[in-house]
Fold:
Amino acid sequence: MVVDQRPLGRGDGPFDSVELLSHIHARAAGFHHADDVAQMAFGPLQALDDVGMGLVGDMNHDARPNPPGEDGSTVAYPPPGDTLSSNERGRPACRLPLDAVPPYFERLRAEDPVHWAESGEEEVGGYWSVTKFNDIMAVDTNHEVFSSEPTIVLPDPAEDFTLPMFIAMDPPKHDVQRKTVSPIVAGPNLAKLEPIIRERAAVILDDCPIGEEFDWVDKVSIELTTMTLATLFDFPWEDRRKLTLWSDAATADEDAPIFEGGGEDRPRAMLFECVDYFMRLWNERVNAPPQPDLISMLCHGEATRDMDRMEYLGNLILLIVGGNDTTRNTISGSVLALHQNPDQDRKLRENPELIPSMVSETIRWQTPLAYMRRRATRDFELGGKTIREGDKIAMWYVSGNRDEEVIDRPNDYIIDRDRVRQHLSFGFGIHRCVGNRLAELQLKIIWEEILKRFPKIEVTGAPRMVNSSFVKGYETLPVIIPTKL
Ligand code: HEM
Structure:
């Protein structure tokens, strides 16, 4: 198939999105979908399972372990009869979602912190799981040795298709594209956004029912973050929930409720709609004077105005998913964490000045993106292992954020902990999250407004987790607000 890679230029009409999106849907180069979800869930657990199935040898070996069965010694992971081998949903361990994996990472950190895993999946292949805080930092801050190309998730893009986005690029191209969009989330623009976000947060919270169960994810987390994203894109207001839908379509499992009743073409159809919609906005803005919105910045920016359609789309997906899901899931996570830790909830309500610190602790505790992938550009020694040129590496932020050697009582949620900003959730180095201050701002505002209104938010049932090993988040979170202040 031929993908149209002509530069977008000035005022091209909608392009043939069908071919393009069939690939995006399959790959989502950076934000996986369907099969990719399963493959990535396979990764870390497979790493342990294959030990259990006979992965061999001394765990302190210098390089990759031998294939199973090549020598006699085996370490059982998980031990026979270990309940970790399946969960109540009846999934095999290798398909467990992120809410079920902490015990596996704990063992990896303790016994084999730089661990070679064979996924058994063609598109993933073998890869190194890096699970300790300092090792992750060593990889993330060394972009010369650890490249982000061609993608930041474990499955490789198809050979005839890549969806470029600057999170999955190395310098110099990464740097100039990042620079093009970063003013939108820099201090002066955040100062302009603050009162807008606050006004919206107030409206959203005032609309929450009292004494009646509702879904916090839909009513609050999605609503606020989608409104912010719509403002960044200067996206038609009445259509803003399309952004949520497309964000979900790019990341959700194909069994997800959003696809229900639409047949197997539904996920693809949703992404066709996304691309066509954004092409219309490009075409309108490319011939208008530059404006301070993301689309205008992209179509007028020197480093981005000649992007082809694939690259435009890749960067849009980066901004939609990166900017939306992560913050949404942290807002939901903050309600859950405070519910599970009533002493911390009390501390917060008695000391509202702790809100910024609580926000950072929640971002660590939640770790909305579980990992980023890199590829070694040359041989490198890490944690006593030799990573070979060309090897894939998964930096498991979700594990590094629980590293007891760096973070005191890492499994506890402590809103006033020392060095609360010392976490890996935003990454480090040249790809460190460009939107981190905007994420923190939204969380700070929503909690300032919650504390003005509600003495308590009770979680009334188990949240439904996103079925992914990349995005750690919530599809639903049932709550009741018993009374208003
Ligand atoms: C709690 C919320 C968020 C979390 C946990 C998060 C996490 C991350 C992580 C882990 C990375 C990659 C870091 C690395 O490779 O070292 C990243 C990059 C990025 N994030 Fe975020 N993010 C959040 C919010 C946002 C928001 C609100 C936006 C945009 C408005 C955003 C836009 C981006 C972009 C564009 C990149 C790519 C940066 C680059 O490659 O230079 N993120 N984020």
Summary: Residues 140, 166-167, 178, 185, 318-319, 322-323, 326-327, 330, 363, 368-369, 372, 425-429, 431-435, 438-439 surround protoporphyrin IX containing FE (CB under 6 Å).
